[in-house]
Structure formats: C-alpha cells, structure tokens
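Archive entry. Fields below.
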Amino acid sequence: MAALIQEVSLAARRTFANGLKDPAFQENFNELVKLMNRVRGRDVNFNPSLTQRNLGQAGERAPVTYIHLFEDQYYSMGIFVLRENARIPLHDHPDMYGLIKVIHGNISVKSFDHVIHPSGDDLSSSSSMSTATTKNSTSGKSNSVFDVPFKKFCSDSMKGPRPFLEVPHREASVNDDCCILTPNKGNIHEVRPSGGPAAFLDILAPPYDMETADRRCFYYEKVNLKACSSTSAFLEKYPNKKLQWLVQVQQPSDFWCDEAKYEGPELP
Ligand SMILES: [Fe+2]
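PREDICTED_STRUCTURE:
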C-alpha cells in the first residue's frame, strides 16, 4: 500500500499532467487537496530539529531551509522550514497553482488576488499596464482604466506598480486544511511562521522555471499610490475589496535558503 505522500504525488501528477483543460481537472484537483489535508510531518519523516538547525562555522544561519522532494515538468514538491522570525517575502507564482500544507507549527499567510476586469483582462499582469481598457457604460467608448500621467509613470519602468486585491490574512496550523493558490487567486503571497518556527509542504504546478521569462519568481513590495486618481476608479469597481499596488523588487536580503535532505518515502 502506498504511503500518503506517495498518493499525494500520484494525485498531483493525475491533476496536472493532462493540463487544465482535462474535463477531470477539477475532480482530480479536489482529490489532491483532500490528500494534502491529511499530510502531517510524520508522513514525510520530518525532523523537527531542522527548525533549530545550526550551520555553525559561517556563524550565520539561513532563515529558511528547503527540502526538495520531487520535480518533473508538471509539478514540484518541497518542504520549507521557517525559523522563528524568518519570512518568505512577498513573491508570485506566474500562471501556477500551489498548495501549502503546514506540517509543523503555525504559519501566517498574507496574499493577493489578481484584478480581473469584467472584460476578462487581467489588470494585474505586467503586460496589461499598457493595454488594459474598459468600456464607458454611457458612451460605449473604450477608455483606458489608467489615467495618462499614471500610464506614463508605469511605462517609465518595466516593473511599474500593478494593482492587486488584498485577501484577508490567514493563519494555518498542522490541523488546518491546505492553503490554495491559483493563477489569479492568492497568487502573490508572503509566508511567516507564527509563534515559533514552522514548516510546510509545498506543491507548485507547473514548477518555477528560472531559465524562461515566463515562470520566474519575482518579489514584491507594497507601494502607496493613494494620491493616484486611478486608484479611486478601481475602488469603485471593487467596493468590498481592498486594492493594493505592488511593485517588483530585488530578492529581499533577509531571505535566503539552505538545503536539507529528504528522508521520507521515495516518491514515484
Ligand atoms: Fe510561494
């Protein structure tokens, strides 16, 4: 009989190998989520002493340890071990799905949704900044959702601020269901341990691909653009949501990873 983590891996392959257009995608995804929700530290032979790991000589410990479990072209599986006060800073998962299951301690997740215009345009994607348009309901004319000075401000920088919708902050522990992100729901997030060190199992599909421009990981920071008139136009469209502008930044200097070996059941 397969170990739970082997079942999870097989379910991830069933879900993602056939592409999102597979009629069984949602059913397979739901099954994967159910299996993920059952995962505990013992299922991956997680050693809690890793949360206290001392790298000795160099004098400086990495704030985060990554344990690689599996990766192919369809999905990756790994464990992130966060020391107390560490963080995985705000980052994205371009066009990817993700599942996070806490296996030790508690985590706090702050995340953001993409802003999808009723026309279907993804206003949070980097390419939308110069092309996004919206219909004027009275005249029927097509108008830019961004005012001219703001568009210029954005076009002055490839990494100009982009609008996102803040998702209510979530706390998760070992007994909670996994956190899910999709290409436009909760796709940008920051993860912190809460009340002590923590660890979580992470599935990403498809995996990051640092060799291509499409699926590299980018880091973000909040920027305050309250003064911009475009912001108020957006807020009218999303009265119950909190709009937040984010800008790409370099990898923050307080975040880096070392690695530890996976000691759990072999993965198919
Ligand atoms: Fe992430």
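CURATOR_NOTE: Residues 4-260 form a domain with the Jelly Rolls fold (CATH 2.60.120.10).
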